[in-house]
Amino acid sequence: MNQYIKRETKIENYDPCPRFLSKMKVSPIAKLVYTTLLGRTFLSRKNGLKDENGNVYVIYPVRALAKYIWVKRNKCQGKG
Predict the structure, then answer these.
(1) Which residues pair with 50 in a beta bridge?
(2) How many Å apart are CA 36 and CA 68, to the nearest integer?
(3) Within 10 A of 32 (CB to CB), how many other CB atoms are there?
(4) Cα separation of 40 and 76, whole Å?
(5) Into how many domains does the chain fold?
(6) Which domain holds residue 37?
(7) What is the DSSP letter of 8?
(8) Alpha-carbon distance 72 to 66, whole Å?
(9) What are phi and psi of 8, to 5 degrees?
(10) Is 59 part of any domain?
(11) Which of 1, 11, 51, 73 has the most CB atoms in a 10 Å sphere around its CB?
């Protein structure tokens, strides 16, 4: 079965993955953590979570991040 993306095709939410990450010599988990936090940054900016200087803040507990990307908590912290 062939499926094509068309103009009216609904695309699910996704986390953006910058191309420069593919060239970095870091673990796949580190890349996934970066990508996930970048997606959360866009969400925070959209929801107006910024200070008086315009800095956007991301609140994402490590435990929740680990659960989201299906790894143990210490992997999100660069341990183990």
Answers:
(1) 56
(2) 9
(3) 20
(4) 15
(5) 1
(6) 26-76
(7) T
(8) 6
(9) -90, 0
(10) yes
(11) 73
6-17 pLDDT per residue, tens: 889 888 888 889
Type of residue found at 78: G
Contacts of 59 (CB under 8 A, 6+ apart): 44, 49
Report the C-alpha gap between 42 and 57 in whole angstroms. 10
Reported confidence tier of residue 1, pLDDT bands at 50, 70, 90: low
Measured distance CA(73)–CA(76) in Å, rounded: 5
**DSSP reduced 3-state for 6:** coil
Q: Is residue 10 part of a domain?
A: no
Q: How far is CA 73 from the centre of its chain?
A: 16
Assess contact for 38 and 18: CB atoms under 8 A: yes
| pLDDT for 80 | 59
Q: Which residues fall within 8 angstroms of residue 21, CB to CB, at 6 or more apart?
A: 31, 34, 35
